[in-house]
Amino acid sequence: MNSFSKLCKCKKCNKTMKFKKESGGLYCCSTYDNYGKSHCDRVIVKEEFLKSLVCRRFEKELSDEEIREVIDHILVEDYLLLEIYFKNNEKPILLQGKFIQF
């Protein structure tokens, strides 16, 4: 199972993003992937990038199981525009271009 399977959602269409093995593993908008650009945009984010943000927040490496225990959901608008929400109502990680709020 992938670390963020069923946790990533496209912020534009609110559909779950699907995991693809290309480029070392990434999540892409399933609406775009299934129906094309007339239905949504090609929203993608690399799995390794998401892991690095979450591990940076907790200041340690987390296993896939630990990641799934703490993450509620992730909204992805673009690879540099995303929000990572936690199950325990901690402040989310907000990425907006060059600005990151941990």
Helix-and-strand structural type:
alpha+beta
Low-pLDDT segments, ≥5 res: none
Bin the strand percentage.
25-35%
Give the overall form.
globular
| Order of adjacent strands in the largest pleated sheet | 1-5-6-7-8
The average pLDDT score comes to 95
Rg estimate, integer Å: 13 Å
Helix content: 10-25%
What's the tally of helices? 3
The CA-CA distance between the termini, in Å, is 26 Å
Number of domains: 1
User: Which sheet architecture does the biggest sheet show?
Assistant: 5 strands, mixed
Helix and strand succession?
A: EEEHEHHEEEE
Tell me how many strands there are: 8
Quick synopsis:
With 102 residues, this protein is α+β, with helices and mostly antiparallel strands.
Report what the structure shows.
- The chain is α+β, with helices and mostly antiparallel strands and 102 residues long.
- The protein has three helices and eight strands; from the N terminus they run E-E-E-H-E-H-H-E-E-E-E.
- It has one domain.
- The strands form two sheets. Strands 1-5-6-7-8 form a five-stranded mixed sheet. Strands 2-3-4 form a three-stranded antiparallel sheet.
- Strand 5 and strand 6 form a beta hairpin.
- The radius of gyration is 13 Å and the shape is globular.
- The termini are far apart.
Features:
102 residues; alpha+beta; three-stranded antiparallel sheet; 8 strands; 34% strand
Secondary structure elements and pairings:
Elements: E1 8-10, E2 17-20, E3 26-29, H1 30-35, E4 44-46, H2 47-58, H3 64-70, E5 71-78, E6 81-86, E7 93-96, E8 99-101
Parallel strand pairs: 1-5
Antiparallel strand pairs: 2-3, 3-4, 5-6, 6-7, 7-8
